[in-house]
């Protein structure tokens, strides 16, 4: 029988979770969630919360979304798992439907193919192998405040040192993130692009396998790529023989409001797109979607992931795409996210601790500083506001290399009514924290 009490759960975690797992707990006090419905969560005592984190973006269209759950349950009861070596129509349909979300290019002739994985970092690993196989080159570029996952290969291109442990695989050079608020070259695009050229010349063999870029950085603190950056980076990387790989694990599936995929805002077409999290609305799944010609050289280096293309998860994924379409989820992300951003801008007028508010659609952030001129990151106020939000029933996350950014990435069914509730809660939290 499951013991739902917080104390017993904490004691079991302390006793049986590895230290690498149990210490990642951002709140001062543990929190046990028992139930989730759309944008809301309930803890074991029945207290209601608004989930501005979407269980770390896995919940794209709503906790326990009835149509997603029904699709998965129907499949699980029929055949829970079917290994990729046997044919199954559900993942095959899902691959076709995912490929259809990709841009076809000016001549409408780009063909996309899908390789399903168990998670985002496995998809990152596979994209690396694919890029190295397709180009015959080894060197990779990544951004300094990037996060790409916990596997060794994904850590090797993760720029935030707190998420990268010693001894990870090499052949990676990092370039400065074009952070428009506190990037080393200030606002703008060109100097960051020049630095890509310089880095290719000085820190690589000059021949690249590719460059990984989160279309909007998540753990880096919601860092948007300025106009022209993605297309300029892709051009430079391709000139060095490499591929442009878009990490859409956080920013995909309509979250940024204007587009299904955040890279589309720059009018650029990647060679490989990596996705996970929101793809299954909580069911574990990842995917590499690649141009057919880029994926083709892997034919004699085939690999597959045990639960990749699992029909239960793929049935959930198909339902997610359907919900995004039928419920106009992307438009909701744009409208509700736009309204929330306005409210955050208003908070910035009144709370000096807020240095910057930014983001697109339902991928938003507030960055806290000790001084608006020096922009010194304010980790303590961020932690205080974060705790006060929890007390007010708002679940957020702290992110950024200095843990000085509140990240808001809720299920995309967030409503206008929630916006008022969130903004009022934040206002009170800043006042309580003397922000
Ligand atoms: N890329 C990004 C941008 C991510 O945020 C994450 C997960 N936080 C990953 C890759 C790795 O995904 P997973 O945890 O499913 O391995």
From TrEMBL:
Q: Which CDD domains match?
A: OAT_like (cd00610)
The answer, when asked if Transit peptide is one of the entry's keywords, is yes
Q: Which SUPFAM superfamilies match?
A: PLP-dependent transferases
InterPro entries under this entry?
Answer: Aminotrans_3, Aminotrans_3_PPA_site, PyrdxlP-dep_Trfase, PyrdxlP-dep_Trfase_major, PyrdxlP-dep_Trfase_small
EC class (word): transferase
Q: Which PROSITE patterns match?
A: AA_TRANSFER_CLASS_3 (PS00600)
What the entry lists under Pfam families is as follows: Aminotran_3
Cofactors: pyridoxal 5'-phosphate
Q: Membrane spanning segments where?
A: none
Q: Does the keyword Transferase apply?
A: yes
Which molecular function terms from Gene Ontology are attached? Answer: alanine-glyoxylate transaminase activity; pyridoxal phosphate binding
Keyword annotations from UniProtKB, A to Z: Aminotransferase, Pyridoxal phosphate, Transferase, Transit peptide
Could you give the subunit structure recorded for this chain? Homotetramer.
- Its protein name is alanine--glyoxylate transaminase
What organism is recorded for this protein?
A: Pelagivirga sediminicola
* Organism taxonomic ancestry: Bacteria, Pseudomonadati, Pseudomonadota, Alphaproteobacteria, Rhodobacterales
């Amino acid at each position: 029988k499951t013991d739902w009490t917080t104390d017993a759960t904490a004691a079991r975690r302390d006793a049986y979770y590895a230290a690498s797992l149990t210490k990642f707990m951002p709140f001062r006090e543990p929190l046990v969630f028992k139930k989730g419905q759309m944008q809301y969560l309930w803890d074991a005592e029945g207290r209601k919360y608004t989930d501005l984190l979407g269980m770390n973006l896995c919940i794209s269209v709503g906790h326990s979304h009835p149509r997603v759950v029904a699709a998965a349950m129907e499949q699980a009861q029929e055949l829970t798992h079917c290994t990729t070596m046997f044919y199954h129509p559900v993942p095959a349909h899902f691959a076709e439907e995912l490929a259809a979300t990709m841009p076809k290019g000016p001549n409408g002739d780009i063909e996309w193919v899908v390789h399903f994985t168990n998670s985002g970092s496995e998809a990152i690993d596979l994209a690396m192998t694919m890029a190295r196989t397709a180009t015959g080159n080894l060197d990779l570029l990544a951004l300094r405040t990037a996060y790409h996952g916990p596997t060794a290969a994904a850590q090797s291109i993760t720029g935030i040192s707190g998420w990268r442990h010693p001894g990870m695989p090499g052949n990676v050079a990092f370039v400065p993130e074009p952070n428009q608020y506190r990037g080393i070259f200030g606002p703008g695009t060109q100097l960051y692009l020049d630095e890509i050229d310089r880095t290719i010349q000085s820190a690589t063999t000059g021949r690249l396998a590719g460059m990984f870029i989160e279309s909007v950085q998540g753990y880096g603190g919601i860092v948007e790529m300025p106009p022209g950056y993605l297309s300029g980076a892709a051009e430079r990387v391709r000139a060095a023989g490499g591929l442009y790989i878009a990490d859409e694990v956080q920013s995909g599936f309509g979250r940024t409001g204007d587009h299904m995929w955040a890279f589309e805002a720059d009018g650029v077409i990647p060679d490989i797109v990596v996705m996970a999290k929101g793809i299954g609305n909580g069911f574990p799944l990842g995917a590499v979607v690649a141009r057919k010609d880029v994926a083709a050289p892997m034919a004699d280096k085939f690999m597959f992931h045990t639960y990749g293309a699992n029909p239960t998860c793929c049935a959930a994924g198909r339902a997610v795409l359907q919900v995004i379409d039928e419920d106009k989820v992307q438009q909701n992300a744009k409208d509700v996210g736009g309204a929330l951003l306005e409210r955050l801008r208003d908070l910035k007028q009144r709370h000096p601790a807020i240095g910057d508010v930014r983001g697109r659609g339902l991928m938003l952030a507030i960055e806290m500083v000790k001084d608006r001129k020096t922009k010194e990151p304010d980790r303590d106020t961020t932690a205080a506001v974060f705790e006060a939000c929890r007390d007010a029933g708002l679940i957020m996350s702290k992110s950024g290399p200095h843990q000085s950014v509140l990240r808001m990435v809720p299920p995309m069914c967030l409503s206008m009514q929630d916006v008022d509730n969130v903004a009022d809660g934040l206002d009170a939290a800043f006042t309580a924290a003397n922000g």
